Amino acid sequence: MGEATKRFWGFANPFAAEERPRHRRFFAVAPHGIGWRLLLSILLFSALITLILTLLELYLDYRRDVTALDSRLEQISGSYAASLAEGLWTLDQKQLQLQLTGILQLPDISAVEVREAGIAGNPIVVEVGARSSDPSMITREYPLHYNAQGRDWVIGTLYVQATLAPIYRALFNRALIILFSQSVKTFLTSLFIIYIFHFLVTRHLFTIARFVSDYRIADLPPHLRLERRPPRYEDELERVVTAFNALSDDLQRAYRRISDANEQLARDATILGEREAKIRRLVDSNIIGIYIWKREDQILEANDAFLRILGYDREDLVAGRLHRADLTPPEWGPRTAQALVELNTIGTVQPYEKEFFRKDGSRVPVLLGSASLDLTSKQGVTFVLDLTERKRVEAEARESERRYREIQMQLAHANRVATMGLLTASIAHEVNQPIGATVTNASAGLRWLGAEPPNLDEVKQALERIVRDGHRAGAVVGRIRALIKRAPRRNERVDISAAVGEVIELTRSEATKDGVVVRTQLADGLPRVQGDRVELQQVILNLILNALEAMSETSEGLRELLITTGRTESGDVLVAVRDSGPGLAPDAIERLFEAFYTTKLNGLGLGLSICRSIIETHGGRLWVSANAPRGAVFQFALPSVLDKAASEILPN
Q1: Beta-carbon contacts of residue 597 (< 8 Å; ≥ 6 apart)
Q2: Neighbours of 300 (CB within 10 A)
Q3: Are residues 206 and 293 in the same domain?
Q4: DSSP assignment of 187-215, as one string?
Q5: Residue 325, domain CATH
Q6: Angle (nearest 5°) at CA 445 between 441 and 451
């Protein structure tokens, strides 16, 4: 084999001495190896193709020979029919015998017969050869015509029988030769192909198999190398070797990462063990109730704190008598179902309050928080905090708050009564005015009735003035009665400007007595505020009386009281009472709203404290600041009804 051929095939002389051990190993390959299976596949496929082509060739030869035989029979009928008809017409049997003998000498003709037609008794029959019923025989009949007396007569029949046996023998011999030659050629070609396949592929597969079987990733093995292969060839095997070496590098890197990860897992396991020990100490410490459950409502484990909360003992837990569904009251079912949805979605449930049934049938308020331990095993843990003491404290706090509110209402009522006591003279003046006017109008009416004739128009006008003054006195008494009367707190929509106006009318006489000029700037169209009208008017009344009292102690300048209503920048309803009194000291401003703190000689220090409490109860705020050029400004702001409705609708 030349060097060019060696370079083409990629290997040296396969019959060299150093290659013989590999050839022996090739012939020692197990029957189930790839090489022998390839050889068998090639042989079977080649045999099938050879058989099909041979059958096709034999069929074509058979058709050609049969066609030639049919053509020969047609030539016999054309060449001998006229002479045989002449001999049969003249009844020359010897001539017929000679002609039939000549036909029998033709290839593949086995028997010939001439039979006279139309003779019922003893027709002439001349035959040569023996007729046979063998399926390999072909028989043809040809009518013999003779023209006599101007008419065409059918005087007999020629029977010719030919045999196909020589054709069959020739086809059989040809098939043997073709099959034998093709088989030998196919076998030798297949053997050469399998040898080349072994040299180019199989032996390298052996090398790869040995390398893989001896491969130990922990030993950091070297790269795979195939023996005696030109390095410039980048065929499929080289790609396999390259891919395997790349895979080996990836595996070694992954092995190193896994080794590092295992070390980290070992460290994490140590940390988890420590955490588990801490959790176990938490469970065993029985600070709060803890139980472990399965999704089927079964409680698997619980600490003593949980059992103590529900009044069960450990025997009940071991006997399986604790089920989450049995512990939950029916009205808590929807909240529990919502918690299960959260648990299935995110694996945790934020703490929420509910109730459990105790063993004795009573209920215990608890705070629950749950988390799934393992979604596959459907297990989780729940922490339970007993809220009995907390609920008791909350109830006591609510009761204390109720009593505080009740005392506050009593103090507010007492403050209103005391305040109205300060307005006795003003109240008497406000009531005496309409009463005096009523008496005057009644006297005038009597005089007009006593006149001759009585002046009824004047009497009517006097009576109308009496009715007006009576309503005026009734309104004054009604406002005083509303402020003094002790009634439950009402929650209504209050027009703050109208409420301020009523208080101003009530205190106008007191302001006039002290020489104070009262001015108002009451805004129209303010939104209403939600609350108790009497309590809000009490605040306004206290602030006005405090301002009047402060200005009564000074003689400098004009005594002026300005009362305004409006809105703050945030939209709250604002009420401001500005006086021109001596003002407040800075340290007094900081403590002015404290209970029992007062700047008056005979004061109790409860008025402004009650006012701030009332305003804060209504959701507002009360504050004081200095007025310019002198005096003080008391202001309070309340949320409007629209702002409250929006805060209830909109989310935080």
Answers
A1: 591, 605, 609
A2: 14
A3: no
A4: HHHHHHHHHHHIIIIIHHHHHHHHHHHT-
A5: 3.30.450.20
A6: 145
Which residues contact residue 128 at a Cβ distance below 8 angstroms, ignoring those fewer than 6 apart?
97, 100, 101, 103, 104, 111, 112, 113
Domain assignment present for 435: no
Q: Return the pLDDT at 566.
A: 93
Q: Tell me how many domains the chain contains.
A: 3
Do residues 614 and 496 share a domain?
yes
Find out whether 93 and 122 touch, Cβ atoms under 8 Å: no
* pLDDT, tens only, 68-78: 888 888 888 78
Residues 84 and 167 in one domain: yes
Secondary-structure breakdown of the chain: helix, strand, coil percentages, each rounded to the nearest 5: 60, 20, 25
Tens digits of residue pLDDT in 253-285: 888 888 888 888 888 777 766 756 666 666 666
* Tokens at 96, concatenated: 């017929």
The end-to-end CA distance of the chain, in Å, is: 94
Q: Are residues 497 and 643 in the same domain?
A: yes
Distance from chain centroid for Cα 587: 63
Domain span at 368: 286-386
Helix (H) or strand (E) holding 542: helix 533-552
| 575: confidence class by pLDDT, cuts 50, 70, 90 | very high
User: Which range, 112-126, 228-242, 435-449, has the best average confidence (pLDDT)?
Assistant: 112-126
Burial bucket for residue 483 (CB in 10 Å: 0-12, 13-18, 19+): buried
Condensed to tens digits (0 to 9), the pLDDT of residues 413-466 reads: 555 555 555 555 455 555 655 666 676 667 767 777 777 788 777 777 777 777
Six token digits for residue 542? 């206290």
CATH of the domain at 628: 3.30.565.10
Q: Do 504 and 650 reside in the same domain of the chain?
A: yes
Q: How many CB atoms lie within 10 A of CB 479?
A: 18
Give the residue from 166, 190, 214 where a domain finishes: 214
Residue 586 pLDDT > 80: no
CA 465/CA 436 separation, integer angstroms: 12
**What is the C-alpha separation between 330 and 31, in angstroms, rounded?**
77
User: Do 300 and 204 belong together in one domain?
Assistant: no
The distance of Cα 90 from the centroid of its chain, to the nearest Å, equals: 112
Establish if 481 belongs to a structural domain: no
Residue at 267 is within a domain: no
In tens, the pLDDT along 518-558 reads 899 998 889 999 988 888 887 888 888 888 888 877 767 78
Same domain, 49 and 156: yes
| Secondary element (H or E) of residue 351 | strand 348-357
Answer whether residue 3 is part of any domain: no
Q: Are 100 and 73 in contact (CB under 8 A)?
A: no
For residue 368, which of 380, 381, 351 has the smallest C-alpha distance? 351
Beta-carbon contacts of residue 425 (< 8 Å; ≥ 6 apart)? 509, 510, 513
Last-in-domain residue among 193, 214, 235: 214
Cα R_g (the chain), whole angstroms? 65
Q: Are strands 363-374 and 348-357 parallel, antiparallel or unpaired?
A: antiparallel
Rounded to 5 degrees, φ, ψ at 153 are -110, 140
